[in-house]
Amino acid sequence: MSDRTRAHVFVSGTVQGVYYRANTRDTAREKGVDGWVKNLADGRVEAIFEGAEDVVEEMIEWCHTGSPAAEVEDVVVEYEEPRGEDGFEIQY
Questions:
Q1: CB of 58 within 8 A of CB of 5?
Q2: In what order do the strands lie in the sheet with 4-14?
């Protein structure tokens, strides 16, 4: 697991109701990143990206734009120890 990294990401702006979660899931799956994404009650989107450092960084960079209809204002990233996420899902 030492070649894996884990990023805990919070995205703010107009990121709910614009297919942000679905686009995040699809992009993560295409890149082979594990984790999950969900909406928060305060209007932000929270995500976990776990995988090789380069693709996790690509996902973080992707979050700054997100889905075509999104208007991202901020992306906050906290790095954590990998926990063995497997697959990528939308959490509800």
A1: no
A2: 71-80, 4-14, 45-52, 34-39, 88-90
Among the listed residues 6, 21, 25, 44, the single catalytic one is 21
| 83 catalytic residue (yes or no) | no
Q: Kindly give, in sequence order, each residue whose CB lies less than 8 Å from that of residue 17, ignoring residues fewer than 6 positions away.
A: none
State whether the Cα torsion 43-50-8-55 is positive or negative.
negative
- CATH 1.10.260.40 assigned to domain 4-90? The reply is no
4 is catalytic: no
With beta carbons less than 8 A apart as the criterion, state whether 25 and 90 touch. yes
Catalytic member of 6, 25, 29, 39: 39
| Residue 3: predicted pLDDT | 87
Domain assignments of the chain as residue spans, ordered by start = 4-90
pLDDT tens sequence across 19-42: 999 999 999 999 999 999 999 999
